[in-house]
Amino acid sequence: MSQWLSAFPFLTPYEKPFYFVILGILLLPSIFASLKGKRLGGYQAFLTLFFLWMSFGGPHRQQGFALIAYVVWQLLIAASYVRYRQTANRGSWFYLSIFLSLLPMILIKVLPLYTETQPLLYFLGYSYLTFKSVQVIMEIRDGLIKELRLRDYIQFLIFFPTISSGPIDRFRRFTAELHQPPSSEKYVELLGKGIHYIIIGCLYKFIIGYVLGSQLLPIIQDKAVNQGFLFLGSLGYMYTYSFYLFFDFAGYSLFAVGVSYLLGHETPINFNKPFISANIKEFWNRWHMSLSFWFRDYVYMRLMFTLIKKKVFKSRIVASNVGYFALFLIMGVWHGLTWYYIVYGLFHASLICLTDAWIRFKKKHKEKIPSNMATKGLSIFLTFHAVCFSLLIFSGYFDTLLKLFFTYNI
Amino acid sequence: MKKKITMALGPLVLAVLLLLALFFSPIDWLKAPSQKELKKSAPSMSINVIKGNTYKNSAAASSDYLPFLGSSELSRINAFHPTVMARKYHRGYEPFLLGAPGTQSLSHFFMLHSMKDELKGKQIVFIISPQWFVKNGVSDQMFSVYYSPLQTYQWLLSLEGKEIGEDEQFVAERLLSFSSITSDTRLSQMLGKIEEQQKLSKLELKNCRRQYNLLAHEDLIFSRIAIQHKESRIKKAINELPEDYSLGKLETLAYKIGEQKTTNNDFGIANNFYSQRIAPLKDKLENSQTSYDYLESPEFSDFQLVLNELAENNVDALFVIPPVNQRWSDYTGLSREMLDDFSEKITKQLHSQGFNQVADYTHLRGEDYFMEDTIHIGWRGWLLLDQDLQTFLKDKKEPKDKIKIDNHYFLSEEWQKERQF
User: Which of A326, A399, B45, B174 is the most exposed place for a label (fewest CB within 10 A)?
Assistant: First the structure.
């Protein structure tokens, strides 16, 4: 037994193609049942536990314990708040619940600044689980979730295909599907799409993303930093990194969505040809969509609503701009407490505010501004480059450059 | 319905078949690099040459190349750079530069290990930078840049059938402190076993072999692209040298070129380095290095791995300890005493184990034009190294008899933090 255990291939979700071999075999019973329009609840629960053990057991068992503790903590908060909300609706209890729900994430992000080691609370995907937990508290407050079946909530939180990096699903959508499995007709369609997504995902992540990220990026960085091609090399790094990030993350997201489909869950898609966006707003409707929609619904809209209701700003435009800066600043901080993530957020907020101003200007001077294929092409070109530059900031490239130039080697 | 399912599964079956075809196709069209390509790669310091095996191992196998392991100083090409001197005066060897800004002992260890068969019984030059020996050793960021999965799997495979020793345990422990390693679950699982002195299972070794073969194929493909041409810079530098070798003439020339190239500052730093890297931050740098300390670092043990590897393969090495430009260190407040202590500590590690070929330039820090800038050997520095190198190459030692490796002490935290030596 112990020998078998030591040979067990522990892997984080979709880490190696081998993950899919195991997945393909173990998913079969569930697929057969779904083809008959049924959901094997018990078997799917076993699958969840098995794959979580694969990713959070063995060398990662510390993270496994942290995950269990996290889920228990969130259950306590959500269960208490839903009970409270059935009788009263004071803002202070809502904010306290939100704070407590965010607390593990805050600690995981802040503690390493002092200790230089990863806190015991850390586990892969903690920030994505936080989006799900906070969302549930907010919808309890709104009265959209009146009762919380703990079993449903646990399944929602630890749904293994999306546990490490999303897409961020919605609780009500997920549970509706949980109790009403897709018809066999519908499932055949999902099965086909799911397999297709996984194949495309392999092409994106394991082939294109790997070649760009693991093989080409270091060579290009070397050119830029060490071999004297600073400008051209950095430009090359910007394009290569942007495509690498897209193929790596879109590939991962296709896996998560594809595997969800095989399990009979229509997890929302995350990417929709982001690089053909004609402006930055469209970009955020096409890039890491589940994240930007989450921020739109749970941060931006709520903040706008409060700001306008309480008449904090006279002008709606100012309120909207403040909302964007809040949104992207939080998104930056969420990515990590380093200067370049925050600059990345502020850069995007500025771009969106500028885009809004441009759209207002365009509306006023409709007849004077041409709109044709050429202008459309130009806006796609400009948007693409603005996005690529923001991703270059995001990559930490400038941080490496500054360190190499001004701290190492002097 | 059945048709729909076939439509869904068809592409999957096809994809698997194509993948299998790709895996088992012969990749014979990739051949070893030609002599010309090899010569071009020698001074390139390209990252794919450093991380790969294709070029550096072919070079190590041939007797035409002399490996120089080091870091950023290797890129300071001027008339007295080893590559230029060797070509101009037909020295019979071409320096193969293995290192780049940010490579430290751990990368050098893996490089040496990956070409140990080719290097057996030969000579190398190893330039030690005091700047590597900081509190936490090589940074996570820099390690990940030069981390070579190929060389790491090759090392794992070399453990087959061997009892796991203290040095191997240390390597595993060190690797597990870097994020580029821990993000690979299977690799960290295997390293975890080695850290606990357990052997890898047959299945694990089989996986390693498969992974290694895959990475070796990738190396054949990707190490070819984008190898840096430094030929024009080297040719230009060669033309600055007198036709016939004359030490006196060269010494005068080194002094003269140094003088000409360092006119915009009082530190004896090359003009372009000064205007690009120092001038923008000059005031901030004053007294900015007073607390720098190179005496306590895991790097001392990482360096021990290098020594161990050299001893095991009977490689004769000339160690070089470059100074820090004194006029500059006085400005930044970097302690001379501390640097002297560093030189003593590293020399003790070398001498006490029988590595006696040490060119320690620490005390030449005040010599004009010895350094090209702050911490990199320059015109007169390279020239002195050239003389020491000729002596070293002439009387090749048989180091095996004298070397006495003490891993237990030098891999210990006690030695890493030792301040009395």
Answer: A399
